[in-house]
Design a protein that fits this description.
Length: 243
């Protein structure tokens, strides 16, 4: 009995693992098996949670299918998910804020931040730049307590050193800590324009669009490490004394 109760949770937990280790096809095959099992035994809530997880992972579930499944289930989570199709496909600030508030009220901060970010992407694709920026800010603010958490729908970018040059890595680390372009420029002996160039190239490599999506490092590592010392030694004496 206990195994049967825990099976839906285990099946859901396995999805992101399969996606990460074996790829999208393996995850979708597992999903098909899990959905068939849920439908066979009439487990509407299990089916809904599966569809939601897969949508959050960016797999092949349409938001319409998610909302249709939610309409067959009772409870605050289902009520929120039932609105996803109408809100995501034609986002407005008030509608997205309503969904975010509903999730936050039920202590589902991750879901709240995710739906705000997904709505911001749709708004951006529709050419609604102002709305996209506001929704991205809402997603970022909502996700602040989540610290090192990241999901495909949350849209954060880890600062992966191997993808970046030393300068790009340094600017990203400082930007993620909240430093302005001017502050970064002063620390790295660059111009603000050069800093912005490094950031823009980094965003492209990390698959994000703005500094607000940078995921802060859990360890406050030195920026550029020995490279800063080498740069300082190469500076004119007058500049070194000013620091």
């Amino acid at each position: 009995m206990a195994g049967q109760i825990m099976r839906p949770f285990a099946d859901r937990a396995l999805l992101p693992v399969l996606l990460e280790l074996e790829g999208q096809q393996a995850a979708e095959d597992h999903l098909a098996h899990c959905l068939a099992h849920a439908e066979k035994f009439g487990r509407r809530l299990s089916r809904l949670r599966l569809l939601h997880d897969v949508w959050r992972l960016g797999l092949s579930v349409e938001v319409d299918e998610l909302s249709e499944a939610a309409a067959l289930v009772q409870g605050p989570l289902a009520q929120a998910l039932a609105q996803y199709a109408s809100v995501i496909e034609a986002p407005s600030q008030s509608a997205v804020e309503g969904l975010v508030s509903a999730h936050v009220a039920s202590q589902r901060l991750l879901y709240a931040a995710e739906v705000a970010h997904r709505a911001s992407v749709v708004a951006r694709d529709l050419g609604q730049r102002t709305l996209a920026s506001r929704l991205l800010a809402l997603a970022t603010e909502t996700a602040v307590p989540l610290e090192q958490v990241n999901t495909p729908s949350l849209g954060r970018g880890r600062i992966i050193r191997s993808l970046l040059t030393e300068r790009e890595h340094a600017t990203c680390v400082l930007a993620a800590r909240g430093a302005s372009n001017q502050e970064i420029a002063e620390e790295l002996f660059l111009s603000p324009r050069t800093v912005e160039g490094h950031l823009q190239r980094s965003y492209t490599k990390l698959g994000i669009a703005t500094r607000r999506q940078l995921l802060p490092s859990s360890v406050r590592e030195p920026v550029l490490e020995e490279n800063l010392e080498e740069l300082s030694e190469a500076l004119p004496v007058s500049r070194q004394s000013a620091t």
